[in-house]
Write a structure and sequence with these properties.
CATH superfamily of the largest domain: Winged helix-like DNA-binding domain superfamily/Winged helix DNA-binding domain
Shape: elongated
Strand content: under 5%
Oligomer: single chain
Order of helices and strands: HHHHHHHH
CATH architecture of the largest domain: Orthogonal Bundle
Number of domains: 2
CATH topology of the largest domain: Arc Repressor Mutant, subunit A
Length: 202
């Protein structure tokens, strides 16, 4: 991999192709979570890889390359959708992150099924859910990244979990995988983690 990276630093097209091919699925999985459809996700992915190739000389070889690339692609997705995000003025939930009590559904869901539900969330909820639950950002980091208050970030996460729970209930709530809404985990095809916890307390 280091040889490919060094080739990309030299702007070698074959090395760039090999890097793109190696991380296409990983990057596309990230983009699909933020996008409305595959065409939109592909546009974000291509823009993300352009930023990777442009800035690859800044990569620190002492750190995992996959994480570095994933952060660039995630930030590209955020930039792409920031203008369309309409963050409503929800109640500040700083002291009430667990409002609503334990989830009633503890069922199995494949990542591809979760993806459909997440893509159906309003952009504001979807973005915060992705950043917090899947990409591991804290509410403080989300607040700075999206220029919203910490309370709004927590509120959007709560609303996202609530809507996912409602949709899971309405669809019968029985799929394959591993899902919990208030204590949330997902198994299979998750780009950054095999399982993630969403208890509102990062």
């Amino acid at each position: 991999m280091q040889e490919i990276i060094e080739g990309c630093i030299r702007k070698d097209r074959s090395s760039q192709y090999l890097l793109y091919k190696e991380f296409y699925s990983y990057g596309m999985a990230i983009c699909r979570r933020y996008a409305l459809n595959d065409d939109d996700a592909a546009d974000v992915l291509n823009n993300g890889f352009m930023k990777v190739f442009t800035n690859i000389e800044k990569y620190d070889p002492e750190k995992p390359f996959k994480a570095w690339l994933g952060k660039i692609i995630t930030n590209t997705a955020i930039d792409h959708y920031r203008k369309s995000l309409k963050f409503s003025k929800h109640d500040e939930l700083t002291d009430h992150e667990d409002i609503g009590g334990p989830a009633q559904v503890y069922e199995q869901m494949a990542y591809k099924d979760l993806l459909v539900l997440v893509q159906g969330l309003p952009p504001a909820y979807r973005t915060v859910f992705n950043l917090f639950a899947i990409d591991g950002y804290s509410h403080e980091e989300i607040s700075e990244l999206l220029n919203i208050s910490i309370g709004t970030s927590k509120s959007n996460l709560f609303k996202a979990r609530q809507k996912l729970q409602e949709r899971l209930n309405s669809s019968g709530g029985n799929k394959s995988g591993d899902i919990y809404i208030n204590n949330f985990s997902v198994q299979s095809e998750m780009p950054s983690q095999n399982k993630i916890a969403v208890d509102g307390k990062r």
